[in-house]
Amino acid sequence: MTAVAGCLLFLGGFVLVAVLYQPYAIPTDSMAPTVRPDDRVLAHRVAGPEVRRGDVVVFRQESWGELPMVKRVVAIGGDTVACCDEEGRLLVNGRPIVERYLDVGEPASATPFEYEVPPDELFLLGDRRADSLDSRTRLMEGETATVSRDAVTARVEATVWPPERFGLLPRAHGFADLPGGLSEPGPFRPLLWAIASGAVLILLSVCTGPILRGLTGSRGGPGGRGGPRRT
Predict the structure, then answer these.
(1) 103-169-58 Cα angle (round to 5)
(2) How large is the average pLDDT for residues 118-132?
(3) Which residue from 129, 137, 178, 227 has the fewest beta carbons nearer than 10 Å?
(4) For residue 125, what are the β-bridge partners?
């Protein structure tokens, strides 16, 4: 039974991860230091209406290019987003946002801007603000600055490669007090525990089986009885 339970947890966890998450390779440093070039991440498959401020999302919109892109949502439909206040912080609806995922000393934007986000649209920025082509760039070029919610395919939740960077992305707590709050974490952590628990149960089953058989054999003689044989 231990082996069966272990297999169910181990294989079931892997299957659910494959169904609920999509892998993605980060191609540029526009989201550093949160995710870096050549990082492999897992993105939880979500629909556009589930997206909240602070989410790092994977999206594809033809006007932004042919390939999927990864950026952070800093404002949603109806918000007025601007930069910067006297301390170099982003302003959303006049409220300063503390963005701890930015490099120390980096302002929220080197270029001032102000924009009212249309309904059902998202205003997106890279975490490396000095080297990111994002909504600010498009705004300055006179193009549509936002992305439709429907263009979002997933929300990045964890870095899985390289091993030293394995872990969940930090939460964007600076947006927590705004209406709607932050997105709830996806099931990656419990699924990871299920996979790890299944592996442990399988290992225990493999190790304890021979030990128990050896103990049974050492106590039993011919006919299954213990003790010395009579001649």
Answers:
(1) 95
(2) 95
(3) 227
(4) 72
